[in-house]
Structure formats: C-alpha cells, structure tokens
Amino acid sequence: MRGGSVPVTDEAIEKIKTMIVSGELGPGDRLPKEADLAERLGLSRSSLREAVKALSLIRVLDVRQGDGTYVTSLAPDLLLDALGFVVDFHRDDTVLDFLEVRRILEPAATAMAALAMPEAEIVALGGVLAELGEEPTVEALVANDLDFHRRIAAGSGNPVLCSLIESLSGPTARARIWRGLTQEGAVRRTREQHQAIYEAIASRQPEVARSWATVHIAGVEEWLRTMLGSAEGALTSAEVNGSGKRSAQDRP
Question: Mapping DSSP to helix (H, G, I), strand (E, B) and coil, where does residue 230 land?
Fold first, then answer.
C-alpha cells in the first residue's frame, strides 16, 4: 500500500502545472524560492521538493544547482523525450503495436511533407537516397531508412508529430534488420518504395505520398505478423545483432 505522501506530492505537481498552464509561469521563467512557493501554494517544502523532482524528470522544470528552478522551453521534442524513455522498455512482442501506430502516423506526416517541405530539404532528402551504395549492408540500409523517415517527419512541419514518429522508430529498427536479412527482395523493395515516396513528395502529390508510405510500413508489419505466427520465425538478439553487418546479398 502506498504511503500518504503520494497524494500530497500529486497535489503539489498539479498546483505547479496549473501555474504553468494558466500562464502565470511561462517557458524560461524562474520559480519563486522554495520557501515562498511552498507557503503560497499551501504545501510542505518536502512535498514541493518531490514535485519539482518529478517535473524535472519529464523535462517540465530545469533545476540548476546554485541558480534556481526554471520552467523549460516546453518544446514538444523536449517533453516527448519522456515518451522515448518509456518506449525503450518495449518487449519484442509489442513491436507489432509500434508498427501499427507508425502506419497510422507516418502516412499522414508524409502527405503533409509533400505540401510543406521546403525545396532545399526535398533536395537533401534525395541526397540521402543517393548516399546508399549499390550493395549496402542491411545495417547501412536501416540507418539510411531511419534518416530518410526522420527527415520526412521533420518536413511535415509539425514538431509534435515529428517527435512522436522519432520515438516510435527505435523499437521497429531491429524488425527491419531482421526482414532485410531473411525476406527475399526486401532490400530492393525498400529502396524502390523510398524512391517512390521521395518522388511523390518532390512532385507535391500528398495522396500519392500517403499511399506509398502506407504500403512501405504495412509491408514490414505484415511480414512480421507472418513471422511471429510461424514456429520458424523466432527472433533472437543474436540473429539480429550478430548478423546486422552482413551484406544484403548474403541474406538467406
């Protein structure tokens, strides 16, 4: 059973949150001194201290030793770091869940990028595809894939959407390596689909871009669903981590 201090700490967190949401404290503002703030909010200094500690962990507050406690920039990428931390604890059997969410979010981001991505960034996106050699290792292909999708998410112009997609990319990377090593034609299809996505963005065709992004992610998702349902499809860290440096041409 939890001690009685938890609700008090929750109350302290809520009161600080209210000060920020109401605009009484804004990004970059310094909190009043601990004793003054505790008295003003009707809290004990210990519960206020615990609340500050909790809010600093999720990047709402920044505790600077010898200087004071400040509200952070509250930028989406900063606040969503906490989500990335939680995502790192995923289990292999939840990878399909992450892929399903990616299939919902990334096509929308890709369509938005086709409308909003600046020309210079589209050129840079094409450069990412051109960097890949004719016979890349699967490891190099997946690194290139992560950069490609990251740039598209950023090109959507929505920093919250971009941060969410980046948080979801890590857990699915190993599945993409495994697919590249085991599924015939996976590397070729990945490159072709990347090219189609790029061309749709470059020609400012949002619905075509959305469709190709859906096909691209759904392909990995359906392959993994099939493999997880197969007795021969057991994924082990040794298979992926030990084989990631093999050439795409060497896959079974």
Answer: coil
Q: Write down the domain spans for the chain.
A: 5-73, 79-250
The single-letter DSSP state of residue 70 is: E
- CATH code of the region 5-73: 1.10.10.10
Q: Which of the residues in the chain have pLDDT under 50? A: 1-5, 90, 231-252
Exposed e or buried b per residue across 15-38, where buried means at least 16 C-beta atoms within 10 angstroms of its C-beta: bbeebbeeeebeeeeebbeeeebb
Spatial CB neighbours of 12, under 8 Å, sequence gap ≥ 6? 41, 43, 47, 48, 50, 51
Radius of gyration of the chain (CA): 23
Q: List helix spans (H) across 4-44.
A: 5-21, 34-41
The first and second tokens of residue 157, run together, are 């112009």
Q: What is the pLDDT of residues 177-212, one digit of tens each?
A: 667 666 778 888 889 999 999 999 999 999 999 999
- The separation between CA 181 and the C-alpha centre of its own chain, rounded to angstroms, equals 24
CATH architecture of 79-250: Up-down Bundle (1.20)
Amino acid identity for residue 149 in this structure? H
* DSSP 8-state symbol, 104: H
Name residue 75's amino acid.
Answer: A
